[in-house]
């Protein structure tokens, strides 16, 4: 069995999160052959951060903004543009468009979708829309904005991936639409696994973006919603990490039989020789993650200022790579200087986290978006309690679900609320009984529901269930 596993902008070039999960899944499923497929933005030389396991027998990469030519593919003709004219109409019902587009793709999976730009239909459609809704906008800017919105999707739909027995996409988005079209071309099943909900993450990103003009934000959001709708409808199975995610997935897919939950899992044996640090002198807190905006490191630094005023012997270790967003890292270091925390906050850079876990009294996450963080599971395996923002599966991990409610393994606070984060850290410091009980709860929870062997077995069963 050969599985084409598709990553968008992550594995093998980005450390942590989805990449760690993917590398773990592949390397622990040794009897399955994998083709790793990476979706990049523009062609450029990059150094991979992971060495592929031996069962990765093929690697393929394509780029969203490359200027591809597809001479062997049939260009879009009148029959397709007539169908598109009926499907794509303002105000754009993404659910209905997703359904109709998927039916169109089923009949025509192997076209040069980028050829739409050369069609009279495309020109007439964009001119008509411009005259009705955006006549005050500069037409050249309007034209190239639409092009930049559409070319990544059209490239993803047209490119031929290596033929596999299953395509397993780790997001909807561009990776997902590529999986669906190639699944239809080769008549093989598609599995979708979502750690976070792609279309909701893109919506938040677009609404915050100052480089996208307000006039175009709705269009961007509806485009990503439509792509997700197509991917949900075309996937044979849709897995996610926790039940809360399914509420958003079911906005675009009503087939209950497609959905299942497969939580992340870690190899608890890797942490079995590490012991939890009970001494509070000093009180060491760790934040394990990349120094990037989505991890909201600045909120953790602001919280550290308040904590330092109450706990003099306090240290915050920010453990993770700092090179992904250099400007954000610079801003974080400036904030440390402004708050006079040079002796309190330490950026470790890329290190072996297992060397730091035995030195920590507490783990924190200040992220504004997460799936089901592996670092929380690793902390639990060592017995480190966790204070986290209420994002992704963090609440379920810390407070438990209906299947494993024991007691809290830490505290959950609102995102961006540095005062609540600081107060939670102080509470954990002052309440030894709660902290030590949380330590034991975390250990029990991770061994009960979040082991790697459980995760691997679940995915192996899933792969076998969809292969015809």
TrEMBL record:
Return the NCBIfam families for the record.
Answer: PelF
**UniProt keyword annotations, A-Z:** Transferase
Q: Which domain of life is it from?
A: Bacteria
Record's InterPro entries?
DUF3492, Glyco_trans_1, PelF-like
Q: Its Gene Ontology molecular function terms?
A: glycosyltransferase activity
Q: Which residues form the Glycosyl transferase family domain?
A: 278-445
Q: What is this protein called?
A: Glycosyltransferase I
Cited Gene3D superfamilies: Glycogen Phosphorylase B (3.40.50.2000)
Query: Transmembrane region positions?
Result: none
Q: Which residues form the DUF3492 domain?
A: 1-251
């Amino acid at each position: 069995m050969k599985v084409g596993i598709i990553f968008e902008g992550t594995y093998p070039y980005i450390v942590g999160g989805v990449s760690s999960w993917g590398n773990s899944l592949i390397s622990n499923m040794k009897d399955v052959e994998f083709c790793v497929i990476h979706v990049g933005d523009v062609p450029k030389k990059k150094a991979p951060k992971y060495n592929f396991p031996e069962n990765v027998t093929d690697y393929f990469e394509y780029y969203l903004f490359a200027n591809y030519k597809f001479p062997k593919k049939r260009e879009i003709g009148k029959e397709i543009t007539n169908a598109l004219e009926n499907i794509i109409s303002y105000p754009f019902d993404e659910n209905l468009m997703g359904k109709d587009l998927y039916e169109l793709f089923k009949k025509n999976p192997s076209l040069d979708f980028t050829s739409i730009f050369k069609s009279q239909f495309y020109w007439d459609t964009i001119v008509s829309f411009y005259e009705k809704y955006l006549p005050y906008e500069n037409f050249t800017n309007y034209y190239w904005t639409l092009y930049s919105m559409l070319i990544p999707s059209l490239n993803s739909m047209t490119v031929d991936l290596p033929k596999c027995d299953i395509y397993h996409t780790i997001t909807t988005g561009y990776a997902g639409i590529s999986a669906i079209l190639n699944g239809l071309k080769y008549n093989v099943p598609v599995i979708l696994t979502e750690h976070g909900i792609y279309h909701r993450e893109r919506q938040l990103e677009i609404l915050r973006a100052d480089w996208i003009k307000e006039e175009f934000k709705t269009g961007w959001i509806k485009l990503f919603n439509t792509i997700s709708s197509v991917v949900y409808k075309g996937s044979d199975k849709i897995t996610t990490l926790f039940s809360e995610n399914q509420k958003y997935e079911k906005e675009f897919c009503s087939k209950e039989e497609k959905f299942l939950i497969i939580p992340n899992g870690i190899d608890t044996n890797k942490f079995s020789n590490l012991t939890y640090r009970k001494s509070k002198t000093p009180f060491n807190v760790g934040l394990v993650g990349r120094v990037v905006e989505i991890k909201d490191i600045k909120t953790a630094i602001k919280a550290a200022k308040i904590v330092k005023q109450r706990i003099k012997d306090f240290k915050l270790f920010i453990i993770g790579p700092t090179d992904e967003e250099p400007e954000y890292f610079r801003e974080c270091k400036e904030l440390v200087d402004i708050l006079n925390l040079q002796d309190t906050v330490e950026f470790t850079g890329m290190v072996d986290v297992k060397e730091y876990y035995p030195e920590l009294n507490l783990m924190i996450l200040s992220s504004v978006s997460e799936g089901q963080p592996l670092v929380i599971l690793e902390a639990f395996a060592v017995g480190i309690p966790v204070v986290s923002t209420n994002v992704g599966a963090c609440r379920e991990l810390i407070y438990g679900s209906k299947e494993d409610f024991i007691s809290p393994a830490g505290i959950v606070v609102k995102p961006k609320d540095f005062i609540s984060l600081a107060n939670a850290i102080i509470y954990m410091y002052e309440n030894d009984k709660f902290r030590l009980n949380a330590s034991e709860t975390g250990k029990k929870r991770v061994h009960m529901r979040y082991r790697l062997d459980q995760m691997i077995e679940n995915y192996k069963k899933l792969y076998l269930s969809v292969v015809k």
